[in-house]
Amino acid sequence: MSALGAAEIHPSAVVEPGARIGAGVRIGPFAHVGPEVTLADGVELRSHAVVTGATYVGAQSTVFSFAVLGEIPQDLKFRGEATRLEIGPRARIREHVTINTGTAGGGGLTRIGADVLIMAGAHVAHDAQVGDRVILVNSAAIAGHCVIEDDVIVGGLSGVHQWVRVGRGAIIGAVTMVTHDVMPYGLVQGPRGRLDGLNLVGLKRRGVPREDITALRAAYQMLAQGEGTLQDRARRLGEESESAYVREIVDFVTGESDRGLLAPE
Questions:
Q1: What is the pTM for the complete model shown?
Q2: Which of 145, 180, 214 delimits the end of a domain?
């Protein structure tokens, strides 16, 4: 073990040689820290937490009991190649959460942003890119290669299909399966997820100006009911709107997609 500063390690915990432990780290009873792990300053591992693989856990993060971070991907193509998991600062990772490292074919890195809350039983698969301030509610599942942008909420017992992108500020309701990309600030719900409006509550909570919310509502209507294809409507919208929030949606809709886009209804 390489200690970077004073740490509190319970006698029953296992910290393997090579692990890097920051100042003020607390490691509880029966926790296990692998040899390639870095725990930044102020990280707390509760009892029976497991952090393994080439995993970095950001400062002031808390990993609760029975979470397993940095295990190998659940991908039959994985052949033991060197891949990583990075978790940003101030993450709250609750009981029984599992987050896997990446795969060579997917870029080799699973990344979790800052200030996330990942609730009990949730799963983040290989090569997923999860932004800042994301909330994954109990038993949500994020499949491999997904991109979950900042400020997204994924409801309990919901699943996001591999390669799907979920745009910034979107919200996915509980017990929802998302198989196509979700535009920024979208509201998705239903057993087979459908785009059902904008995340107006989230926009207001973040203090988005009223004029931008009005512009977003008008943009949504144009995308839902305008002439031409969705791409055509988005490009026209980009030419007409001066709202940065609307342009963000336009860039997302007209960007590359592996799964196609959930269309406004």
A1: 0.96
A2: 145
